[in-house]
Structures are given as C-alpha cells and as structure tokens.
Specification:
By secondary structure, this protein is α/β, with parallel strands linked by helices. It folds into two domains: 2-207, 2-enoyl-CoA Hydratase, Chain A, domain 1, CATH 3.90.226; 211-259, Orthogonal Bundle (Lyase 2-enoyl-coa Hydratase, Chain  A, domain 2), CATH 1.10.12. It has helices at 32-46, 69-76, 99-102, 118-124, 152-160, 162-171, 177-182, 195-209, 212-225, 230-245, 248-259, and strands spanning 2-4, 8-13, 16-21, 53-58, 107-111, 115-116, 128-132, 136-138, 175-176, 188-190. The strands form two sheets. Strands 1-2-3-4-5-7-10 form a seven-stranded mixed β-sheet, sandwiched between helices. Strands 6-8-9 form a three-stranded mixed β-sheet. Helix 1 (32-46) links the parallel strand 3 and strand 4. The longest helix has 16 residues, at 230-245. It is globular and about 65 Å long.
C-alpha cells in the first residue's frame, strides 16, 4: 500500500513502513512543511501495531541536500508566508528531530545519496543507518557561517567519539560512505546496485524475527542510559525483567527455538 503527501510518500510491505522524502528534482531539499509532515507520519506509524520497523529514505539520487534555500528566499521576499516553527520542546526525546529516538520501534535511515546539513541531522537521530556506497555526509554548517543544528553537538560525539566529531563539525568536510562506516557514523556501507532491496531485507528480518516488545524496551533503556549511571541502567534492567519473563514474546522466543520454526512474535 502506498500513500503520499506533498513532500513524502509512504509504502507498507508486511510489518515494514517506508517513508520517502520525495522532492527528487530538488535533491529532497528540506522544506519546513516536510519536517512537520514527517513527524506526523512517523508518530502515527509509531502507534500503529501493524508496523514494527520504519525506514526513512530519499527519492532519486540524494537523501537530503540540506535546507531549501528557495523557500528562504521566498519568505524573505514576502512571496510566501513562513511555515510555523514549533520551537524546541521541553523533553530530551521531544525535540525537533529527537522525537525519532522516542518512537517505540526501530527507525532505519537508508541514506541513498548525499546527506547534507539537515539531512545529516535527520540521519543521526535514526536508530540504525545504512549508506549506499555513493552516499556522502556533511554538516556544512561552519562553511556557511552557521553552527551545528538541533543538538548534534550532543549526539555526534557519543556516536563516533569527541575528536572525530569535533573535526567533522569544525571542518564541515564531506565524508564518503566508506569512511562513514569505518568511524561508526553508519552501521554498514552497501552497494549502490540493489541498495533499497538490501535495506528492505534487513528491515524485514528485524520486523519478522525479533520481538517488538524486546526492541521497544531495548530502545528506551539504551537512550535512557546515555544520561544515566551504570547503576541506574542495571536497576532499570531489573525493573523490566519480571514482566519480560512473563511476556508472550519471551515464551514464543523460547518455543520457536525449541521447535526449530520461524518466530511468531506478537509484541506482547
């Protein structure tokens, strides 16, 4: 099933929903309305029990080439009214893009081409990143007299280490997919040929062969642990353990292994 908005398309296959940034003629340049529509769509998918994995990718040869400067010119010239800016939230996982970290299921970013500026920000806030071999990454902020956006000064050092993050943010240089894989910016660099099919296969495996309940808790506990102590993380595990051992997904996880058959997880 496929659905669409002005800047996005949504396709579903089994338990996987794929959201595509769909402005290929503009290299999927980021329009504020795209951001609002993406958040609304992803939050809806996050609450949809028929969806277990969300994939975000781009149409054409780019993932997202950064901010739509044509939109800015039109606003400044008075040709169009600006899209309302919701401003920052009050919770860590309710900021402009960090809401992706609060979605209770895996969010995969399939970076099919250049991810620049806000495109890099969007990719960083997803849980898992796969890059096509031709993909490239850059904040470009310092090269435009800007500063890194939306909290990636907090996020990027936790992903790739402080020295690497500092160098990438200060230089604004372009990083190819191979280097991105080596430094941990992406989980894997995949061949351009059949890239989307390779990502779809990994997404299906995640959706069909792992427990939605376990992944929901893993995601929450892992992000909580980024701002907690080891003791707090251990206590959080013990709080979750009794209900986990009593869950349907735990029983199914054991049973399908014993019976040597595919898993039939329910998420309960």
């Amino acid at each position: 099933m496929t659905d669409s908005k002005d800047f996005l398309t949504l396709a579903r296959e089994g338990y996987v929903a794929t959201v595509t940034l769909s402005r290929p003629e503009q290299h999927n340049a980021w329009h504020p309305q795209m951001g609002l529509d993406l958040e609304a769509m992803v939050r809806t998918l996050g609450n949809d029990e028929a969806v277990r994995v969300i994939v975000i990718t781009g149409a054409g040869k780019s993932f997202c080439a950064g901010l739509d400067f044509g939109y800015l010119r039109d606003v400044r010239a008075g040709r169009i009214a600006p899209v309302p800016d919701p401003g920052p939230g009050d919770e860590d996982l309710n900021q402009r893009y960090s809401y992706l970290m609060g979605i209770p299921k895996p969010v995969i970013c399939a970076v099919n081409g250049p991810a620049v500026g806000i495109g890099l920000v969007l990719a960083l806030f997803c849980d898992i990143r796969y890059a096509a071999a031709s993909a490239r990454f850059s904040g470009m902020f310092s090269r435009r007299g800007l500063i890194p956006e939306h909290g990636i000064t907090w996020l990027l050092p936790r992903m790739i280490g402080l020295p690497r993050a500092m160098e990438l943010m200060m230089s604004g240089r372009m990083v190819d997919a191979g280097e991105a894989e080596r430094i941990g910016l992406v989980n894997a660099c995949l061949a351009d040929d059949g890239f989307h099919e390779q990502v779809a296969q990994r997404a299906r495996d995640l959706a069909e062969n792992t427990s939605p309940r376990a992944n929901r808790i893993i995601k929450r506990l892992t992000y909580e642990a980024t701002t907690s102590s080891l003791t707090q993380a251990v206590h959080a595990f013990y709080r979750e353990l009794p209900d986990t051992l009593a869950s349907e997904d735990f029983r199914e996880g054991v049973q399908h292994f014993i019976e040597k058959r595919p898993a039939r997880f329910t998420g309960n």
